[in-house]
Amino acid sequence: MIKLPSGVDINNLIDDIRIFSWQAADILLYYSKLLEDSDGKRNILKNNNVNDPVTVADLKVNELIIKRINEKYKNINWDILSEENVKISSKGFDSKTDWIWVLDPLDGTKDFIQGTGNYAMHLALNFKQKTYIGFVLIPNKNQLWITDGKKTWCEKRDGTRYKPNLLKKNNLQEMTLVTSKNHGNEILKNLIQKINFRKVEIMGSIGCKIASIIRGDSDIYICLSLPGKSSPKDWDFAAPESILKAAGGAVTNLDNQELTYGQTSFQQSGVIVATSNKDTHGSICLQIKKIIEDNAIYPL
């Protein structure tokens, strides 16, 4: 059984992060509203990188969450790995502790800018390079997904709770796939066509995609990184994996191996598969791997 660092109670911690998360929601919804105006968009964008934009909202939420954790939990033996801090720091991130918070203050920044509502805040507490507890906040849906490491549930701002509703399908052709629209990936498109899913839903943010699986709106998500190109990072997957795994689903690489965090450049490369059923996940990975190999779609 995993024990939290000395002085930290799991229930109090979840209560605190719940409060911090809804404060973050206020920031994200405020700037989302400002983005509806073209002048607002110019003021909110902090860089001109079309492929990796940063907004004032990213930075404000980043500052809020880190400040709140550090204020509430002084002298606790954990570190905080944040996407925004990695981008701006020249020192890198070198942790000597088993406990690491992994934060993406705004996952789905392109969708946030485009006004689709498919954006999320990710926050996970990892132990020894594996996910333990996690939070995925989807402000536009008034949803905060939480796992205490054993179970997953969703809360609305008024405290209303509801449980996961994972579907249990075994056949790829009967499944609804949720995939990205902001990443032009012809190899992945080819794989999707070969599998011939029942339905394909387009959605931003990995957190939003994984939440759609937990809600029962979709069955599977496939992430395929192109060789030599950028890959998702730890902060993209840590919180989403934590909530799906505790709900009864799974997130692994194509060889059905659990993701490991804190590796070189925080990369999560290759082919990653998320499904709604941990019991059949391995066989689903095998089916996908066979389709890739038989059609020479991707170098394995």
TrEMBL record:
A UniProt-annotated Pfam family: Inositol_P
Domain of life where this protein originates: Bacteria
Cofactors demanded by this protein: Mg(2+)
GO MF annotation list: 3'(2'),5'-bisphosphate nucleotidase activity; metal ion binding
Binding site for Mg(2+): E83, D104, L106, D107, D236
Keywords of this entry: Magnesium, Metal-binding
Listed CDD domains: CysQ
UniProt entry tagged with the keyword Nuclease: no
InterPro entries for this protein: CysQ/Inositol_MonoPase, Inositol_monophosphatase-like
SUPFAM superfamilies: Carbohydrate phosphatase (SSF56655)
GO BP: any one term: 3'-phosphoadenosine 5'-phosphosulfate metabolic process
Protein name: CysQ protein-like protein
Source organism per UniProt: Prochlorococcus marinus (strain MIT 9215)
